[in-house]
Each structure stands twice: as structure tokens, then as C-alpha cells.
Amino acid sequence: MTVITDRDVVESVADALQFISYYHPTDFVQAVHRAYEMEQSQAAKDALAQILINSRMCAMGKRPICQDTGIVTVFVDIGMEVRWDTSKPLEDLINEGVSSAYLHPDNKLRASILEDPAGARKNTKDNTPAVIHTRMVKGNTVDFRVAAKGGGSENKSKLAMLNPSDSIVDWVVKTVPTMGAGWCPPGMLGIGIGGTAEKAMVMAKESLMDPVDIHELRERGPSTRAEELRLEIMEAVNKLGIGAQGLGGLTTVLDVKIMDYPTHAASLPVAMIPNCAATRHAHFELTGNGPVFQEAPSLDAWPEVTWEPGDSVRRVDLDTVTQEETLTWQPGDTLLLSGTMYTGRDAAHKRMTQMIAEGEELPVDLKGKFIYYVGPVDPVRDEVVGPAGPTTSTRMDKFTDNILEHTGLLGMIGKAERGPVAIDAIRKHKAVYLMAVGGAAYLVSKAITDAKVVAFDDLGMEAIYAFTVKDMPVSVAVDAQGTSVHITGPKLWQANIEEQAIELF
Question: Whole-model pTM above 0.90?
């Protein structure tokens, strides 16, 4: 009889989470590279290049692919012949492994999990607890699938209770544009069809644990309706022209995964959950022979891709830049930023807004400055800061007008699009919004030469930092007139795809 011990679970889970923090699945790397090679949109191609370069750097440096090191999700299939040599519940063992992984001194990962979510929202400090799904199955082994899911992509999850006669493809095509670019495309779409509402959502999440294999499916041809839907949805979504980082281009999704389950005659539950450019998951099986440790892939699996800013790049000194200068910036311009910027995201913006309302002086002077929406990973060894890629900017939209009005802030840096409220505020105050590439956090961190907390240190990774940067690459996403590349880019590329009948990924 197979006997599983505490150590088997704890060490295997901890190793898997460390492993996926810096190793993309190689099938995903190859899929991104295919998209890079065929991409015709220069903005999207540049973004894909940065994602690939970042991925290789993380594999070499063993540091996180993304600053958002995710909420841990675990699927466990427990063989009914297995015996457990432990006094602890399985959930406790898994969470012990999560804690061990996220507090690892050589590669400390960002703790993003908050307890009392509708109240105090207090950080648990070690990224526990994980979200765990278990089931009993035949056999004498325990099968684990472990993932770390970023909040930016998780927040774009969708569920619809369609009528049985409704088109699933039409619903997906209508819904994907509403997700914006905060899920950091290109990635995968996981779709669950059938069962009940909660069953569809779990299936959508579980389907994302599978490897990228849409090309093999296309070559052999579909054998089920679910496989036909995968191909139909893949083609239809890429025809939208959303592209990498929402900038407009040929590849929005790299694969579409579908799981289905019998459902009620009156129902058609459909769930959709995207995986982002920081796709992270691993699989292992406990057989009673001790912990399982992941095998490092060969670096040959990563393509040698380079990225250099074009001849039209503007170099910007953040310590001397003026509004007159920013008024000349055009949507899509590439900038290399040097000098001092401040950081701040949800909690910091909420606190600053409260201080403004109460007539209190803010702890930092933002006049003429730029604020970067980021929650960095803690540094290790000789780093000044850990991976520090942008967070989804739309979460700060409701604060934007007030902050611009009362601080004299010149601009903002983040990822993905801004909504109408923020764009109106940007136009009103003649500010600008710049975009860094989501999914290239380690690459971005190499442009940061100094980092120190200057306010709200009780907020942990959401504290306000002062970053000194050297040649940090960004692009102008919304100019001072309110023109957004996340609106103009996809429209242009959707038209190009339709008019030129471009062969899609």
C-alpha cells in the first residue's frame, strides 16, 4: 500500500511553487515565440519580445516572472488505496508548503493574500491559504496540479447562464473585449461548459492546467464538439485584433481550453477564465517514494530574442520633465525614463484620497512627478528591488481625477487600458498615461537602480516607494488629449485582419 507522509506533500508543493515562479512551461514559451515570429504589429511584437526576454532572464536568475506571484490553486486527485502517515489535514500540509515556498530566503515571493476580504483586508504574510480542490479517484497515488494565478487575469473571470439555444462562440466574442487588457494577453482562455454555475467555474480553472496543444489539434482535426469549439473560439477571438497587451495585433490568445459536464435541460452555464503572460503551473504525482522535485528545463527551450528601442525613442529625465514636454508626446511613442518616480496602487490611492478629503498634507510631494502602479517583490542578495512589473491601471481609475486635481501629478505608469473616467481626467488635467509591459517584471526591475519606502510602510508591498530608474522602457498609452492606443490599436488591427484576410495564429 502507498504511504504518503507530511514531508512528501510539504516539500513537493514548496518545490513546485518555487519552480513555477521562475520557469514558464516550455510549451507556453514556444507558443509565445510563434506569436512573436508572425506578429505584424510593431507595438505588439515589442511587447512579446520583452515577455520572452523576461522569461529567459527569470529562468537564468531564478527570480519571479511577475511581481504578482499569485494566489495558489491546487487540484488534488487522491487514490482511494493511499494511506496517510500524518496527523495533519491535507489542507494544512499544502498550506505549509505554500508558506515555505513564499518565504524562501533565496527567492522570496510576494505575499498577496489578504484575510477578512470584506473588512480589514489584512495580509497573511506568507500567501496562505491556497484554494484547494480535492477528489477521491481509483488508484494508489496522489496527483497534484499546482498553479499560481495572478490577480490581473483572475479579475477578468466571467460566468454566464446562457439559454440552451444561445451561441457559446458569440458570447465569448462579445465578452472578451469587455475584459480589457488587464489579463496581460496573449494567454490562454479556460472555458467550462455545463454542470452548475460553480462547476463551470471550477472546470474553466482546471482546464488551464493543460499544456498548449492547439496546433496539434488543428493538424489532426477535432473529434468532439468541444474540440470544434476550441478552434472556432481561437479564430474568432484572434480576429478581434486585441493583440499583445491590448495594443492591437494578430495574437490575443495562444490556446483555448474547454472542459464540459452534463447540465440541466433548462441550463447552459458557461465560465471563462483567462491565463496571463505569466502562466504558471506544475504537475507531480506522489507514489510513496518521498517528495517529488521538479526537473529544470534546458535553457535551449528559450529563444534568443533581443529588443532595442527604435530610432524614434525619446529619453526622458523625470527630475526635470515639464508639462510642455509631455504635451508633445504622441500615442505609441516609446520612452526611456530616467530619474525619480513614486509608486502607489490601490491601498495607497485610497489612503491619499482620504487624507486629501480630511485636509491632511500628503507624505510625498507629487507635483510634476510620475506615479508607477506597482507592488514589487522584496529584494534578495544584491538586488535593490525584486521584480517590479506594473499592475492593472483601471483599478486606480476612480481615484485619478481627485489625485490629479489635488497633487499636480504629471503622469501615471501602469499596464492595460484606462477607462472613460480616467481618460476624461487625463484630458482635463493635460496629464499622460504610460504603459509598461505586463509579464516582464524582472526585466523592468533591472532598470531600477535605487528603491526605498517613503510612506505608508504598514501597507507592505502596497507602500509608496521612491524608485530611481535608468532607461526604463514605456510607451505612451494615453496622451494629453485623451487618445488611447488601447482603443485605436485594436480597431486598426481588427480592420487589417478583415481587409487583408491575414492568416491567424
Answer: yes
